[in-house]
Amino acid sequence: MFGIINLGKPAGPTSRDCVNHIQRLIRPVKVGHAGTLDPIASGVLLILVGQASRLTDCVHDLDKEYVGTFQLGVTSPSADTETEIEVVPDAPVPTIDELDAALNLFRGTISQTPPIYSALRIDGKRAYDLARAGETPDIPSRQVTIFELEILTYEYPRLVLRISCSTGTYIRSIGRDLARSLKNDAIMTDLIRTRIGPFSFRESVSLESMDSKAKISDAIQSPLIALESMPKLTPNAESLQRLKDGQHVRLDTHCSAPDQLHVALDLNHQLHSLVRYHADDQTWKVEKYFPPP
């Protein structure tokens, strides 16, 4: 078994619970996931099966899309419903035009501070563990990119946003910071991840349907789908063997993106390896080789 399952995670179980469910049915095949979803969130969770688990970094870097629901006029330490909620006294009620205008502050590359209740590691510990222990972790801001941001529905205090963004974006922070820019505050009450790269929620399979090894096998998709945006190479048989053996190989192809990993395809146009160009001697070398399943 080798590939990716586009799983529609329900609200409730953790991402690890979903992995464990698949793992139990296909042992000893290795199973992992890319892009954790909080238990309260639902939507696309990519399950990496077999050797595809070594693609975690590549899959994790894919752009993502969410639909987030927020309640204005309240606040909480976690910016969602996990911690105690307090009403913001005398909070102004923004109009939809004010909200729409404020969205411009959050489009493009922005600086964002994740909530203290997050999975970020601070000195080796999860931020949410520190927060639950009564500490206030110092969380540095980060640069993220918001490609698209729009209001789907708004009837105060309920606001629904569609957000297309780079990996590492905290959707809770978007709603919180948007409200705060208008002298209000907000918590996230619901989150659906509608897309990771080319994988959409409407084309996902449900967790409950993954109840046998056969059904899991049928749901596995080619890992090349997740790598569609990466540049491709098609070496000949001799070069493929040398790459497999860990040798530096000269290829009759121009490298237009020397800083990027490239996908090397085998003679059947399946994933052979991830390779990188070495400008010093103008050769290619394997960084990750994927044996045939």
Describe the structure.
The model has no long low-confidence stretch (mean pLDDT 92). The protein folds into 3 domains: 3-62 and 198-223, 2-Layer Sandwich (Pseudouridine synthase), CATH 3.30.2350.10; 64-193, Pseudouridine synthase (2-Layer Sandwich), CATH 3.30.2350; 232-289, PUA domain (Archaeosine Trna-guanine Transglycosylase, Chain: A, domain 4, Roll), CATH 2.30.130.10. The protein is globular, with a radius of gyration of 22 Å. The chain has helices at 15-26, 56-60, 96-102, 127-132, 171-180, 213-219, 237-244; strands at 3-9, 31-34, 42-49, 64-72, 74-75, 86-87, 108-112, 121-122, 125-126, 142-155, 158-165, 186-196, 199-200, 205-206, 232-233, 262-265, 271-278, 283-289. A hairpin with a 5-residue loop joins strand 16 and strand 17 (271-278). Strands 1, 2, 3, 4, 7, 10, 11, 12, 13 and 14 form a 10-stranded mixed β-sheet that branches. Strands 15-16-17-18 form a 4-stranded mixed β-sheet, covered by helices on one side. A two-stranded antiparallel ribbon has the order 5-6. It contains 7 helices and 18 strands. It is α+β, with helices and mostly antiparallel strands and 293 residues long.
